[in-house]
Amino acid sequence: MPFFIDTHCHFDAAEFDTDRDAEYARAVAAGVGVQVVPAVSRDNFAAVAATCTRYPGCVPAWGLHPMYLHVHRQEHLAALRAQIETRRPVAVGEIGLDFFVRGLDRATQETYLVEQLKIARDFDLPVLLHCRRANDDILKQLRKIKVRGGIAHAFNGSPQQAGEFIKLGFKLGFGGAFTWPRANNLRRLAADLPLEAIVLETDSPDIPPVWIGRGRNAPGELPRIAATLAELRGIDADTVAHATTQNARALLGPLVPVV
Fold first, then answer.
1. CA distance 127 to 170
2. 53: closest CA among 11, 4, 95, 81?
3. What is the pLDDT of residues 152-193, one digit of tens each?
4. Is the Cα torsion angle 25, 29, 34, 40 positive or negative in sign?
5. Per-residue pLDDT tens digits for 53-108
6. pLDDT digit string (tens) for 119-160?
């Protein structure tokens, strides 16, 4: 059976509270052996830690998400450093910029992004980037603050922006969004970008694929997402599974378990 790594899965989310054990078992049975579980604020560090302790295939990333500015405080940056020292993650994340959601102060977002890039640099960790309507602004910061690569999560930029991320050592995360027939830009990117630059993700419980519609996404959907990518590229699903898993392992390193 092919082995998959879900490089972005909020498996600690409340949406899984009633059936988390069952969904984890379903994912493992489908070949999803590793889930990267990113934190979004200091307040959910404990939930992410508990999830990654309970489920052997779950590994943490620690970060302060740009959409949670209302709960972040400057002292949480020190708490992030302390959390990394307490339990080393596979990445710093989810961090980044969101210029789509109204009411999120750009300057404050940029402050948190810059400080967290510095933390990732200091600990020699990759980053998981939220980059909604903000690719160029994030690329500008990445050129100033050199980190050990990372993933542009839910990538939806131009081929030129994709190329700039790749030059900086980043992989591009693709999940349920490109499975929708009207997602023309995403489908072109998924078909045309170098396979060695792509990793798979679900962003569960969010960004459901077309066969779920508006329902809850889950990590067990990843093999079907991979099959859709294989179909778009005209290659077999095993090739996609192997390549994307190797891409994720090369980026995230030895803390990704073999289970």
1. 9
2. 11
3. 999 999 999 999 999 999 999 999 999 999 999 999 999 999
4. negative
5. 999 999 999 999 999 999 999 999 999 999 999 999 999 999 999 999 999 999 99
6. 999 999 999 999 999 999 999 999 999 999 999 999 999 999
Query: What is the per-residue pLDDT for 257?
Result: 63
Please report where in the chains the tokens 């099959």 appear, as a residue: 227
State how far the Cα of 259 lies from the Cα of 64, in Å rounded to an integer.
Answer: 28
Confidence class of residue 253 from pLDDT cuts 50, 70 and 90?
confident
Cα 181 to Cα 183: distance, rounded to the nearest angstrom: 6
In angstroms, how far apart are the furthest CA atoms of the chain?
49
How many CB atoms are closer than 10 A to CB 176? 25
DSSP state of 98: E
Domains of the chain and any CATH numbers: 4-255 (3.20.20.140)
| Closest-CA residue to 126 (of 98, 181, 180, 168) | 168
Taking the C-alpha atoms of residue 119 and residue 32, their distance in angstroms, rounded to an integer, is 30
Query: E strands, the chain, where?
Result: 4-6, 32-38, 58-62, 91-98, 127-132, 150-153, 170-174, 198-200
- What are the backbone angles phi and psi of residue 91, rounded to the nearest 5°? -165, 165
Nearest-10 crossing angle of helices 184-192, 222-233: 80
Q: List the Cα angle 38/154/156 in 5-degree steps.
A: 155
